[in-house]
Amino acid sequence: MIDQQVLQITAAALFFLGLAGIATTRNLVKAIMAFQIVLFGVNLALFASGLGLNGPTLFSTTLLVLSISIGASIEAVALSLVILVYRQYGTLNPWEIRRLRH
Amino acid sequence: MIIEIVALLAVLLVVATAVALLAQRLVYSLISLFYAGLLMGAIFLAYGASYAGLFQIITFSGAVSVMFMVILMLVGREPMPAGPRFSPERLVGYALAIGGFIVFAVILLQFAPLAVHLDEGQATRGVDFPANDPLAFLWALRSWDALFLVILVSAAIAGILNFFSKEGGHE
């Protein structure tokens, strides 16, 4: 098994673990944590896809750093939204928030 | 030698993320995520991508972890809802995740990734692949990362639409 396959399978495992976490959790903070795991999987796949014979290419590393920056920014915005939702509804359970909205 | 180290780091990474998802207390999830960020950075460093590895550690194990900690200090006193561990929607979520992973793992094990044959110039300007390659269409979509991003954005759109819909859902 070559390096890329190990990394790609790990990336797939992270991606689907995070997706299952987003789908099944009942806490918004934990959903953002699951999103971070999905992001880890995507970043690892990006890194693995650019892994050549002489190590990672400069192009893939540049894209990876860009992806890390964008992912961290998205998480910051999501966490600020969580604070707003908690102040508004007093709970972090998405099903409870939906019930309170109606 | 490096493949053994990376395989060990990869296994530890999957275990750390699984612990982060399964932990009942958010603080334990946060600690596991901290270690997952460190392990990701270690994988990048093992392949010589020192800039990306250090950036990963600084960003996710540093800044984002501190941000999560502040959020937990503000809102983390609420206990996790004690729903049934094997409710129907959870079982569907687990089944989709396991099924999707098996499909991807089989595809990845059957067909060697394409970029291993590329040098720096080919990776930046693009490369033609033989027409009989069954996965060539994926390379046209910038390989797995593009596919993952499409799935992620679709799931996010579906989730947001479902969350803000007035009808349906769990009342």
In short:
The complex is a heterodimer of chains A (102) and B (171). Chain A has helices at 3-24, 28-49, 58-89, 94-101; strands at 51-52, 55-56.
Structural overview:
The complex is a heterodimer of chains A (102) and B (171). By secondary structure, chain A is mainly alpha-helical. Chain A has helices at residues 3-24, 28-49, 58-89, 94-101; strands at residues 51-52, 55-56. Chain A has one domain (3-101): Helix Hairpins. Helix content of chain A is 82%, strand content 4%. In chain A, helix 1 runs antiparallel to helix 2. The mean pLDDT of chain B is 77. The radius of gyration of chain B is 20 Å and the shape is globular. Chain B has two domains: 2-75, NADH-ubiquinone/plastoquinone oxidoreductase chain 6, subunit NuoJ (Four Helix Bundle (Hemerythrin (Met), subunit A), Up-down Bundle); 117-171, no CATH class. In chain B, helix 2 runs antiparallel to helix 3. Chain B is mostly helical and 171 residues long. Chains A and B meet through helix 1, helix 2, strand 1, strand 2 and helix 3 of A and helix 1, helix 2, helix 3, helix 4 and helix 5 of B.
Layout of secondary structure:
The complex is a heterodimer of chains A (102) and B (171).
Chain A: H1 3-24, H2 28-49, E1 51-52, E2 55-56, H3 58-89, H4 94-101
Antiparallel strand pairs in A: 1-2
Chain B: H1 2-22, H2 26-46, H3 50-75, H4 88-110, H5 120-125, H6 136-140, H7 143-164
